[in-house]
Specification:
The structure is a homodimer of 198-residue chains.
Chain A (H helix, E strand, L loop, with lengths): L5 E5 L6 H11 L3 E3 L2 E3 L13 E3 L2 H9 L3 E7 L2 E6 H9 L3 E5 L2 H9 L5 E6 L4 H10 L4 H16 L6 E4 L3 H15 L14
Parallel strand pairs in A: 1-7, 1-8, 2-7, 3-4, 8-9
Antiparallel strand pairs in A: 3-6, 5-6
């Protein structure tokens, strides 16, 4: 069986990257969104193993010590990471595995030489993000401005990725992501060349 | 305007890579096949500037000296090369430019760090190539065996490319190439990021 592809998938808060991926996953059961581990507490409705793997600080850094993370980052006293096992098992099953991670984590993977398809989702205009975050109504204006200054830094790193999706129209962005996934299945590194009579 | 993509496109003699590209070009006028320069004489029906740029040995190596070639190779006393101007003009026009070149030339480009999408076309079984070359009836069996030993070496280099097209069914291979072309238009290196309000 052909191994699946690893996708590193980032974009600023409020850009709609989760919505695009949700739509893709509705149509394509071969796409798997990796479940991150985190040290933060579950929010109402969040289920362990579905939304996150919830870990104590001690469990988390025990796993770090055992080299069980593909990448991890600490922001605002909370740690987030991607467990190798979660990713590798799915890739061996031939799944296309998406790591929806922040830019810092993504660049860590890239500089560690992790072979993946790096996709960045961006808006046409950063002011769209402000409107969406205000529209959500879940954060203070101060917190939103803080997020936007991170977003601005993240957008400056977009050029480190392989592909750019401009989320201007949701359907167009979904089609574009589907095309990238389809093309990535033809990457030579995923073929078992020994099965051909060359 | 978005710059076009450069595609380096190779595969063993008789694999059908030209036929695939012909079909793509019939449907997509944005795809351009670069015209190679060569020192060999025109065969009946071959037109200068359409099939090849026919050059004398002296003209060819004069251009080499002026660094006007993106790549060139010499095989059996004949030189073939890709003129930079032919490629760069079309890329600036936003065309997707295909260099249908041999593996040696392709690997030269890759090691020179030329940013391109490298595509290799292969058969399921090398014996298919022998049948096709015999079927063409244009070469002696000795010449065919010589080609096949080159093909065998070329296939061993497939893994240096980005993408693999198995030309098992023509329509499938064409669809796959279309997908790669479409995805490549989303490569971040082709976007003019300055036009976004980030």
């Amino acid at each position: 069986m052909k191994k699946g592809n690893l996708f590193v998938y980032s974009g600023p808060s409020g850009v709609g990257k989760g919505t695009i991926l949700d739509k893709i996953m509705e149509e394509d059961s071969n796409v798997y969104r990796s479940v991150s581990a985190t040290t933060r507490s579950p929010r109402p409705g969040e289920i362990n193993g579905v939304h996150y793997y919830f870990m104590t600080e001690e469990e988390f850094y025990d796993s770090v010590g055992k080299n069980e993370f593909l990448e991890y980052v600490k922001t605002y006293n909370t740690s987030y990471g991607t467990l190798k096992k979660d990713v590798e098992d799915k890739l061996s099953e031939g799944k296309d595995v998406f790591l929806e991670i922040d830019v810092k984590g993504a660049l860590n993977l890239k500089s560690a030489g992790v072979k993946a398809v790096y996709i960045f989702v961006a808006p046409v205009d950063i002011s769209i993000l402000r409107e969406r975050l205000i529209g959500r109504g879940t954060e203070t204006l101060e917190k939103i401005e803080e997020r936007l200054s991170i977003s601005s830094w993240e957008l400056s790193k977009a050029k480190e990725y392989d592909y750019l999706l401009i989320n201007d129209e949701l359907d167009k962005a979904c089609d574009e992501l589907k095309t990238i996934i389809k093309a990535s299945r033809l990457l030579i590194r995923n073929f078992d060349l020994s099965k051909y009579k060359w």
